[in-house]
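Internal ticket #5521
Category: modeling
Description: The requester needs a full-assembly model to guide mutagenesis choices. All entity lines are attached below as received. Residue total reported by intake: 750.
Assigned to: D.W.
Attached entities:
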Amino acid sequence: MIDFTQPTPVLLSEERQITETRRELVLNMGPQHPSTHGVLRVRLTLEGEMVVACDPVIGYLHRGVEKLGESHRYAQIVPWTDRTDYVAAPSNNLGYVLAVEKLCGIEAPERAQYWRMIMAELARIASHLVWLGTHALDIGALSVSLYTFRDRELILDIFEKFCGARLTTNMMEIGGFSRQIPPALPEMVRDFCRYLPKAIREYEDLLTENPIWLARTKGVGIVEPEIAISYSLTGACLRGSGVNYDVRKAMPYLLYDRIDFAVPLGTHGDVYDRYLVRVEEMRQSIRIIEQCLDQVPADGPLMAYESNYVIPPHERVMTTAEDMQRHFIWVIKGFSPPKGEVYHAVEHSKGELGYYIVSDGSPIPYRMRIRSPDFVNLQSLPYMAQGAMLADVVALIGTIDIVLGSVDR
Amino acid sequence: MDWEPLIVSYLFGFVLLNVLLLAMAYMTWLERRLVAFFQDRIGPNRTGPFGLLQPIADAVKLISKEDIVPANADRLVFLVAPLLSFVLAPLGALVVPFGDAVTVFGRQVNLYVIDINVAALYFLAVGSMGVYGIILGGYASGNRYSLLGALRSTAQVISYELVLGLSLVGIFILTGSLSLVDILRVQQRTLVLGGLELPNWFLLSQPLAFVLFLIAAVAETNRAPFDLPEAETELIAGYFTEYSGFRFSFYFLAEYINMIVVSLIAATLFLGGIDGPFVDGVWWLAVKAFIFLFFYVWLRATLPRFRYDQLMGLAWKVLLPLALINIGVTGLVRLWGIGAL
């Protein structure tokens, strides 16, 4: 039985005594390296091509987003969350606004909740497409990355149509959406849902049964379920090991309890299983989006205007005195949530993304903490890299699916 | 001494070298365009019509760049290594027959530079010497990535050299000669198989050897999926990480010339070289070599990269036994005289 309170022991390079007889080579991989997905630095101790020890060194993209949260008003923090995990910006927005809404006791209108789910699932697909492309590229399959980035453009087009921005969308707002849904958008999303399964088949034709791909991914980077839990892995890294934990099912938020979707699980916990899990997640996301599009009301409010914490709509500001005053206060000073602390987690494309916010009753959070999934998942790299080859390390970095903006925050 | 054949050979060699360099330049263009089409892109199409001037622009750019030598490099070796790779690369093409003898100005001119009785061995020898440029360059760079690339290259070339050589033994048994000219002559005969008249290409009588040769040749030229010595996503650029400017371009040239030479040799050994329907000639050789080059590009656009240990396992556990079996079977067939091959 593994004691979950104790971290699994893994030797780090610094702790090793490097002696003449061992003939080890310390290789500094990154922060500038083609396959460290940004600015991850990995200090590798190699014996020939075998990895003896591996320590990830992070912090090269630290921008202090959490600290910035302590000096910005609640509504101003949303654009900062875009910049943590920039390949799935709407999901970050969602985690933050849901945490603030929980703090203030606001509930967004049903229509807004459906559109939030659609956008979050599109962001998940976009993130998985980037992951698949770069992961395959790391293992040497050149073309897949071009195909996935081509198809990701369609999602970015949808984002652009909806909110004008493609990457850092600043899409969600506290209380819902103040923008209207463009009339052409549902059809655009439906077109995409019809297109993507064909594209996924194309990627799978190139990879899933390719003997070289199998040789490179099967049995590599195995994480047993108990170890995965002890490292508190989440997302596909955990589900690839066969542990059934998906925040959308375990603690349903938005309207995920009304949607029928499956949580794909792996069996061996290796790189290949995590690959299969993520590919299947893209298909499940398509299912979720299609159900949302079927169920979403065509008309209705998008913003919880009845709440005092939400900025009043433009027409009311121009016609009623209280709303004009509220609007003035909201813009000049911001809104002040009640005192208290709140944690809200969403299932991000990389795992459980949690926002922990402490409010002292002022318009600025007392403390904002982001539990970013890839930061936690990255811990498992030294464990997975034990006894691996140098070429496996890039596959392992790929399989964890990190975005350094989110790891360093 | 009769100087005339020697001078003719030199002249032909000079022409051949220039043709190879031109072919190499357009091979880079072709590869970029083809990979672009495989990947739903356009590729270089801005410089000249269809981007045809792109290789020239690239060459000018590379030559005019600064020649950087890292501070902790082994200076002399670092400077010489790319030259070694580059000089050895086109030598293999010298033994390729480009056609039957032609008469120019009343003189008989052979369309090959030299016909030596160990031509196939010579090609293998020159091919394996080319790796010295890689090993020395990687070692002399004073960079750990370069060193790892050089080590990988050493192991890879030693292993696949064996397979490459052994895959050809079947052909030697069938022809009784190591000369490419002789091997070509045997292939120009007609093979009658069940009333069907087929060309006597060794692709048909040695299919296994052909597959082995193809795999080993891809590994020998460090191309995907065996491009471990320069695996970009692992070793940045492998052995030429520290090279820039024209020294980098020498490695680049060597890699592409190697591809072309191996394609020419493969076409001559297995696909009957200049032999073809209608009129035999160098155009058939060009078409066949192009098929190989296209195959190279196709592989690169499709397959992921092997891992180091898997690469070794493939060579020693799969390809080498198969090559030995092929030799044994060919020898027995030859001994019992089955078929008039």
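Resolution: model delivered.
Comment from assignee: Chain A has one domain: 65-305+334-386.
Ticket closed.
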